Amino acid sequence: MYINMLLIVQSIFIGFFSTVFMDVIAWILEKLFKIKPLNYALIGRWFLYWKERKFTHKTIVHSSPRLGESKWGWGIHYLTGIIWVIFYLILNEVYLFNSSFISILIFSLCTTLVPFIIIQPALGFGFFAKKTPNQLISIRNSLLAHIAFGAGLYLSLNLSIS
Fold it and tell me: Which spans are transmembrane here (predicted)?
């Protein structure tokens, strides 16, 4: 399937604003309810270990920090938002979701499978955060983050269509 340039440009803007919205919600949740936001430096650390061909960790928290891991983590976080938007927009074209709130909510909930099944185990936190001190809180936090991204995606898409 051929991806046109307009789709890429739209995805960059929509993905950026959706991710900003997610981060603002995370900040609000931290201030009001003491819910700790995700630590994107750990994603940067994980990524920076790839050049040493180390893709999994007993626990990334105990792996030595890497120079620039926070910047890399935040960059990957925003790039991931853009990639999710590209994926959603392609699905939207194929299945004609019409960018409905329910389709975006279902999509954003499905995106949690990537951290639950791939990223958390690679970081040493287990499938569905099973090895974290409180698995249900970890799952709740991931779901809140991805739902916030979905809300940002819905708002961004509707603002860009107007």
Answer: 6-29, 72-90, 102-129, 141-161
Q: Is the pTM of this model over 0.90?
A: yes
12/81 Cα distance (integer angstroms): 9
Helix H segments across the chain?
5-33, 40-49, 69-95, 101-111, 113-114, 120-122, 135-161
How many residues would you count in the chain? 162
What value does the mean pLDDT of the chain take? 93
pLDDT tens digits, 25-51: 999 999 999 999 999 999 999 999 999
Residue 137: which residues within 8 A CB-CB, separation 6 or more? Answer: none
Token digits for 57?
């960790």
Residues whose CB falls within 8 Å of the CB of residue 21, separated by 6 or more in sequence, listed in order: 148, 149, 151, 152, 155, 156
